Amino acid sequence: MFETVQAPPPDPILSLIGLFRDDPRPGKIDLGIGVYRDASGNTPILRAVKEAERRLLESETTKRYLGPEGDLAFCAAVSRVVFGGAHPGARLAAVQTPGGGGAVRVLAGLLSHVRPGVTVHVPDPTWSNHYSILEDAGLKIANYPCFDAARGVAAVGPMLEALKRAAPGDAVLLHACCHNPTGAALSHADWEALCEVVEKRGLFPFFDFAYQGFGDGLDEDAYGVRLFAQRLPEMVAASSCSKNFGIYRERTGVAFALGRTAAQAEALLGQMAGVARVLYSMPPNHGAAIVRLILEDQALTASWKQELTGMREAVQAHRDALAAAFRRATNTDHFDFLQHHRGMFSLLGTTPEQAVRLRKEFGVYIVGDGRINLAGLREDQIDPFVTAVLAVCA
């Protein structure tokens, strides 16, 4: 059976975890894996999460199965955060999933069922796992440009022109905010132009909403999703609670599907539950129960929003400080794009060879495509990091 089995190529992000762990150098810097870290380098448990867990442990009376749909009260609570005043009501179907990645896979499976082999236009670059997930679901993949590397901004013009050439009925994968890996943000005008092209061309929107609250705020980051939900009859969106609630290992997310009618939404709910049943049978409860308890309690919601604001502002402070350090070191504004990006990630512009040099010579761990996690950078590491980058880029 296994005579011809070969090990797959290492994941470009996850493989850094072991390399960093085994590096004995005391000054090593980990900017690879995409988790938030505080000033001491820890990924904290939010106070609101701790309190919700305490209440959960005191009140929980059973460990019975949730069912493939998961906790529908949790899904409803998250839907209000995602869609806000643009909530489409009974036209929206939602199932709980194991994280945002699980939501992407459920939605990819849904598309594969309703339109087998449909082409999904994926931004170039994007989260590397998007390709694996879509291919696993049997979907075809095409690319559209999304980033002007020379200027460090979103390539809005080329993006729109590429999507104007997409075939009607094709799907288009969109990062709702905090683009991973580039960090380049779309303005409201950009989103409106994009929505117009998608609507006129008859494309199907597929949102990945992994970082709500880490860009400019919970409502601000949802602008694109809410705009599309108001103007278009159908779409899907994958939402993650991992980052904005800091519950990474609890694997908590929601897959949303917007139908033209309430009856269509009911059918979509059944289809998504069927996909979930095949993939993992039913989702875990703990993370969803935490989020539901927080969002159903005004005091806990206020506490969570305050802590999320603090995390977002800390990441932006890292951006400001890093851009300033590069300005001082180079006497240029070449790295100012770091200050203008949003979310935890930016593409630094280094090559894979330079990323290897950073790791081997300086103990600086970044992804081979040059992606850095700004949340992983402590204040005392900024100047050494700048020195290392300029050394390998010289």
Structure characteristics:
single chain; 394 residues; alpha/beta; Aspartate Aminotransferase, domain 1; Aspartate Aminotransferase, domain 2; 2 domains; seven-stranded mixed β-sheet; two-stranded parallel ribbon; 15 helices; 13 strands; globular
Order of helices and strands: HEHHEHEHEEEHEHEHHEEHHHHEHEEH
Helix content: 40-55%
What is the third-level CATH name, the topology of the largest domain?
Aspartate Aminotransferase, domain 2
What does the radius of gyration come to? 21 Å
CA distance, first residue to last residue? 51 Å
Largest sheet, described in full?
Answer: 7 strands, mixed
Number of strands: 13
Structural class: alpha/beta
Number of domains: 2
Architecture of the largest domain in CATH?
Answer: 3-Layer(aba) Sandwich
The total of helices stands at 15
User: Would you tell me the overall average pLDDT?
Assistant: 96
According to CATH, the homologous superfamily of the largest domain is: Type I PLP-dependent aspartate aminotransferase-like (Major domain)
List segments where confidence is low: pLDDT < 50 over at least 5 consecutive residues.
none
Strand fraction equals: 5-15%
Describe the protein's architecture and organization.
With 394 residues, this protein is α/β, with parallel strands linked by helices. It folds into two domains: 118 residues, Alpha-Beta Complex (Aspartate Aminotransferase, domain 1), CATH 3.90.1150.10; 232 residues, Type I PLP-dependent aspartate aminotransferase-like (Major domain) (Aspartate Aminotransferase, domain 2, 3-Layer(aba) Sandwich), CATH 3.40.640. The strands form four sheets. The protein has a seven-stranded mixed beta sheet, sandwiched between helices. The longest helix is centred in the C-terminal third of the chain and has 33 residues. The chain is globular.
